[in-house]
Amino acid sequence: MRILVTGGAGFIGSHLCDRLIESGHEVICLDNFYTGHKRNIQHLLSHPCFELIRHDITEPIKLEADQVYHLACPASPVHYQSNGIKTIKTNVMGTMNMLGLAKRLKARFLLASTSEVYGDPEIHPQSEEYWGNVNPIGIRSCYDEGKRISETLAFEYHRQNAVDIRVARIFNTHGTRMLENDGRVVSNFIVQALKGIPLTVYGDGSQTRSFCYVSDLVEGLIRLMNGEHVGPVNLGNPGEYTILQLASTIQNMVNPDAEIVFKPLPQDDPRRRQPDISKAKQWLNWEPQVQLEEGLTKTIAYFRDYLNNSK
Ligand code: NAD
Ligand code: UDP
């Protein structure tokens, strides 16, 4: 197949491109390099089945493809908040452009949505039936509401125009190729521990997250795309940790002498998050294989190499 991956030069997108190329597909990677980087796909540039197009999805584009994985959107709070209006445009105009493309091509379309659609959840763990608790005017809403309208758009194109959609709700994911200055918690703690500077825990660190390793996530996306269920489907690792537990784990693994400091909790920071993955198990026969420390070992090795090489 010829497969379009929007956001293909980003963290998850580049791993997805790798897997699709390995499986013998042709891949078109579309990216504006806002948070993505050429180095993530450098090794694919000379591959005859790989094509890179620098393009901003808020502008329409005409291409040919059999499937569309739509991942283009900054995912870290630091980046999506640095230009909130652009984040909204990417989610509204960008998603609409990509759905329009899928409609014209009669291509199957997978939306990379997020656990953020559940906001600061009142039920725990979160299942797909939960409608969420999102502040529509807060500093996270450009992303949270942006992804909610992306889901709405996908389902309207499905009902009205028979676009063949799949919707994944992705929970916190980590792995190689995250940015050094990404701002998300796993990369922050690892980079801080490697540099010997204090690990910055926001709030008292009692808020929880569940961390999925990127190879598991990509497997889930591919199964969802090629399965029969539209979704939405939660994809994430159900292992739940407090942020303080994560800090201590990374501290022990990288640098037991690294200090932990406490910083103010950002506004609207969700207190708990854990995916109910019953649907992914039942529909996709999928569950994560890589547990937290095993995944962290790989992410830490990546950042150690990266920081050594950039000295
Ligand atoms: P990322 O920031 O590394 O990748 C996003 C990619 O999209 C980047 O390459 C960026 O340059 C590109 N992009 C952004 N705006 C664009 C635009 N207007 N036009 C073209 N390209 C654009 O983030 P990621 O972690 O790889 O996330 C990928 C997708 O998965 C995102 O849609 C994100 O919302 C979703 N997601 C990720 C996580 C996670 O924990 N990583 C969790 C939930 C959902
Ligand atoms: N966090 C933290 N220190 C950091 C970065 C993040 O304590 O240096 C916290 C953040 O407040 C949140 C959790 O870690 O409670 C996860 O943050 P991240 O930005 O990775 O993802 P999200 O909040 O979108 O789940």
Principal-axis shape? globular
**CATH topology of the domain at 2-174 and 212-236 and 275-289, anyone?**
Rossmann fold
The strand count comes to 13
- Derived from helix and strand composition plus strand pairing, the structural class reads alpha/beta
How many helical elements? Answer: 9
The CATH homology group name of the domain at 2-174 and 212-236 and 275-289: NAD(P)-binding Rossmann-like Domain
What ligands are attached or bound here?
Answer: nicotinamide-adenine-dinucleotide, uridine-5'-diphosphate
Distance between the termini: 41 Å
Taking the sheet with the most strands, its summary is: 7 strands, parallel
Contiguous low-pLDDT stretches (5 residues minimum) are none
User: What share of the residues lie within helices?
Assistant: 25-40%
Strand content: 15-25%
**Helix and strand sequence:** EHEEEHHEHEEHEEEHEEHEHH
Highest CATH level, the class of the domain at 2-174 and 212-236 and 275-289: Alpha Beta
What is the gyration radius calculated from CA atoms?
Answer: 19 Å
User: Which architecture of the domain at 2-174 and 212-236 and 275-289 would the CATH scheme give at its second level?
Assistant: 3-Layer(aba) Sandwich
Strand order of the largest sheet: 3-2-1-4-5-6-11
Mean pLDDT: 97
